[in-house]
Write a sequence for this structure.
């Protein structure tokens, strides 16, 4: 494979061409590149290699067990209907429609397409989608996200923002101050990320983000899987623990101005082909968003209703014990999740 530097993305980012989708060793190389570079854009040649990717995806991502599987074990749809509360079943039912098929476990759609019975087949299909990281309101969120372009991708960009170079530039005293900050986050601010979210998007977001927690607490500073220190920022942060609103707003506004509103640490990855390109991206010290040729949602809705991405997220294989928190209290939260995933993986490895 041919690797080149992602232009304008500071110390990080790689573009890969001539990737050999049928060579298992190529996926090992890609995984290591992705850990090191935070964002990797793999440019295909317009042919659909999704089956080869799915066949080799274990080399790139360790899938997290679903919360439903952990709680109920392997059950049928009807058994789950009996076992679950109506609210939980509603989430499960909306969520299962996003999945691509049993032969592609955990892979799901990002699309505005509807099924024949007019139900959403994907998340964030025809909405605006501004700067965010996935499942931000949880300690068990995934370090890695992959997005494969399946259909109608040309005309859109998945854009990235890395926070590592910005953090590195700060003074030592400001870094020490940032290292101690615990963000107070609010699910109700989600309209700042998905201003036109549909009910189905909100149903899925509520559950995947632990949204039952009213004032979710999460440290601002964090280390990536490769150990790059940056910030885990979100529009959902409304202030910092033990800090006045005025002082919190000063820091939040500084980050927004210098990072979110500045092109210095950003890269727009415009999809080159309607099908066959792949993005692998860090979900810890990077944020991502969708851009299209116009911001007018009414104009782009038909486009988004035809565009289909295939998404999967999880841990980097060999790094399932990643724990990027600095503050001990949060290291413990994450450690609990690490143990759950490792126990689950050990069960899967046992002969049936
Ligand atoms: Fe996302």
């Amino acid at each position: 494979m041919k690797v080149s530097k992602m232009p304008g993305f500071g110390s990080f980012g790689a573009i890969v061409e001539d990737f050999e989708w049928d060579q298992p060793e190529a996926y090992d190389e890609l995984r290591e590149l992705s850990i090191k570079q935070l964002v990797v854009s793999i440019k295909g040649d317009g042919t659909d290699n999704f089956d080869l990717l799915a066949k080799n995806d274990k080399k790139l991502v360790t899938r997290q067990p679903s919360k439903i599987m952990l709680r109920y074990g392997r059950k049928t749809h009807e058994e789950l209907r009996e076992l679950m509360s109506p609210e939980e079943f509603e989430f499960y039912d909306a969520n299962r429609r996003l999945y691509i098929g049993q032969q592609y476990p955990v892979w799901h759609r990002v699309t505005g397409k509807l099924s024949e019975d007019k139900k959403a087949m994907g998340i964030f299909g025809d909405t605006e989608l501004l700067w965010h990281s996935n499942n931000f309101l949880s300690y068990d969120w995934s370090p890695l996200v992959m997005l494969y372009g399946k259909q109608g991708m040309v005309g859109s960009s998945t854009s990235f923002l890395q926070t590592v170079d910005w953090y590195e530039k700060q003074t030592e005293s400001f870094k020490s101050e940032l290292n101690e900050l615990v963000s107070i986050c609010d699910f109700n601010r989600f309209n700042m990320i998905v201003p036109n979210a549909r009910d189905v998007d909100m149903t899925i977001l509520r559950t995947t983000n632990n949204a039952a927690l009213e004032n979710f607490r999460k440290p601002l500073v964090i280390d990536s899987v490769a150990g790059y220190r940056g910030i885990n920022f979100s529009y959902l942060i409304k202030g910092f623990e033990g800090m006045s609103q005025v002082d919190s707003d000063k820091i939040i506004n500084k980050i927004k101005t210098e990072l979110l509103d500045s092109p210095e640490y950003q890269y727009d990855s415009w999809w080159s082909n309607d099908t066959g390109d792949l993005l692998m991206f860090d979900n810890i010290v990077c944020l991502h968003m969708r851009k299209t040729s116009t911001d007018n949602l009414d104009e782009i809705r038909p486009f988004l209703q035809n565009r289909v991405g295939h998404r999967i997220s999880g841990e980097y294989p060999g790094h399932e014990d990643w724990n990027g928190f600095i503050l001990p209290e949060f290291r413990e939260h994450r450690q609990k999740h690490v143990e759950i995933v490792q126990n689950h993986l050990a069960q899967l490895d046992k002969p049936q």
Summary: The mean pLDDT is 91. The pocket of fe (ii) ion is lined by residues 132, 134, 288 (CB under 6 Å). Residues 221 and 231 are 4 Å apart (CA to CA).
